[in-house]
Structure to design on (438 residues):
């Protein structure tokens, strides 16, 4: 048996490489090619870190120019021209138009580090320890963020007791059998409930890893109301649902809430470069210099692409409008699959272009995504048992590529659920497009 260098030298901790066992070398927009020349449609989008696709030209050009000019690559958290530009663009195009008076803290480059910072700040500002988080929430795997993450598989790797958090039922938990916020409100008011008064509530508006559970606008507004009434800070982790994924730059915009703290990462740089930030209501910015330190708080290449992404995609409502159109098309397709595969597909999940199909049998869901990969579509699953097939194409994907990807997926659903009668012919465009790209 000959082992690849990945198998012989890379740690067993690797994961995506097992699900997609090809070696990739080239990617443009929503398409990606392996070294053996096979073309794939990308419905994974770097798990939400490639919302604008691979190598978007409007971001690549300024980055190349920046590097060619010997501009600053690493500047710790010093003032640089690229950071100045990003802050200005954020102020002009993201924050002021939305009436958000946040300051921007650049943290270490991972999403987990932004979450760590948000949790630490909430504790520091309020003097309380407990943070309320939600069933099926995912916030990263460093110890603080992991304590707020529901998944037992991830939690069990901590090696330490995970403390300082209390889990509450998310909107719709137990199929809506309980009114989760009524419960939360009740235990907050009951001095004998055992709930330690929280510093903050930490949540995703749509739970990316937890199975694409989407909180309703009414639920989010009520949660904000409860937080205000008890002087609890509201932290929205917009690492996966933000940067346009659900249709607006911030996922909480349609709910018309204003979180006290917001975390951003994944597609914040727009180019797949590591960059994270915490947005903090001005009055809460009680950090002292270097308290939440980090060498890589100044990914200047990412500052360049982040500024270009915001200027390219968020200076008007064009992209948002397009996401709304695409999500309606995707929704129609999801509805057709639910009708066709009654019993096998339970329901559709998510919001905007953060959508999924809940399968009754997680093993069958796994067979669908494995088959899809073999047929040239990269797509993953999420949820407590990986039972939700997660449609996560870049939000800039063309109609043609969305249709082509959905066709492959439909074909695989038909095969796994044995409904081959109406199965579309598997796509045959591989060679043609390959010649253009390589
Ligand atoms: N929060 C959310 C909502 C996420 O989806 C993720 C990553 N999936 C994280 C935090 C952690 O980000 P990272 O993997 O970059 O640490």
């Amino acid at each position: 048996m000959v082992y690849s260098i990945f198998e012989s030298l890379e740690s067993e901790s690797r994961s995506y490489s097992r699900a997609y066992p090809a070696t990739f070398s080239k990617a443009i927009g929503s398409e990606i090619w392996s070294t053996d020349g096979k073309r794939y449609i990308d419905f994974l989008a770097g798990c939400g870190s490639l919302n604008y696709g691979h190598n978007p030209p409007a971001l690549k050009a300024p980055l190349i120019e920046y590097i060619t000019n010997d501009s600053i690559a690493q500047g710790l958290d010093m003032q640089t021209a690229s950071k100045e530009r990003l802050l200005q663009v954020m102020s002009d195009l993201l924050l002021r138009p939305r009436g958000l008076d946040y300051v921007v803290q650049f943290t270490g480059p991972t999403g987990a580090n932004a979450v760590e910072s948000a949790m630490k700040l909430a504790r520091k500002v309020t003097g309380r320890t407990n943070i309320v988080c939600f069933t099926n929430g995912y916030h990263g795997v460093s110890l603080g963020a992991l304590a707020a993450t529901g998944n037992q598989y991830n939690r069990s790797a901590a090696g330490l007791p995970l403390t300082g958090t209390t889990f509450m039922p998310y909107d719709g938990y137990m199929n809506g059998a309980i009114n989760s916020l009524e419960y939360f409100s009740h235990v907050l008011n009951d001095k004998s409930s055992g709930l330690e008064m929280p510093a903050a509530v930490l949540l995703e508006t749509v739970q990316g890893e937890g199975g694409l559970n989407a909180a309703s606008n009414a639920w989010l507004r009520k949660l904000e109301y409860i937080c205000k009434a008890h002087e609890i800070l509201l932290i929205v982790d917009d690492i996966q649902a933000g940067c346009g994924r659900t249709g607006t730059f911030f996922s909480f915009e349609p709910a018309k809430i204003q979180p006290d703290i917001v975390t951003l990462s994944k597609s914040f740089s727009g180019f797949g470069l590591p960059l994270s930030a915490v947005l903090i209501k001005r009055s809460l910015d009680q950090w002292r210099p270097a308290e939440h330190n980090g060498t890589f708080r100044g990914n200047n290449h990412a500052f360049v692409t982040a500024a270009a992404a915001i200027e390219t995609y968020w200076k008007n409502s064009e992209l948002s409008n397009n996401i709304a159109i695409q999500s309606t098309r995707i929704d129609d397709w999801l509805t057709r699959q639910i009708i066709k595969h009654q019993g096998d597909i339970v329901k559709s999940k998510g919001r905007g272009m953060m959508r999924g199909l809940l399968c009754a049998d997680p093993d069958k869901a796994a067979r669908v995504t494995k088959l899809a990969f073999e047929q040239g579509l990269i797509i993953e699953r999420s949820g407590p048992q990986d039972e939700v097939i997660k449609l996560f194409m870049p939000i800039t994907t063309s109609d043609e590529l969305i249709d082509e990807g959905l066709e492959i997926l439909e074909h695989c659903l038909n095969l796994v659920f044995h409904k081959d009668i109406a199965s579309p012919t598997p796509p045959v465009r591989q060679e043609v497009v390959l010649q253009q790209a390589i």
Observations:
- Confidence is low (pLDDT under 50) at residues 428-438.
- The chain has 15 helices and 17 strands.
- Residues 47, 110-112, 115, 138-140, 204, 208-209, 237, 239-240, 265 surround 4'-deoxy-4'-aminopyridoxal-5'-phosphate (CB under 6 Å).
- The radius of gyration is 22 Å.
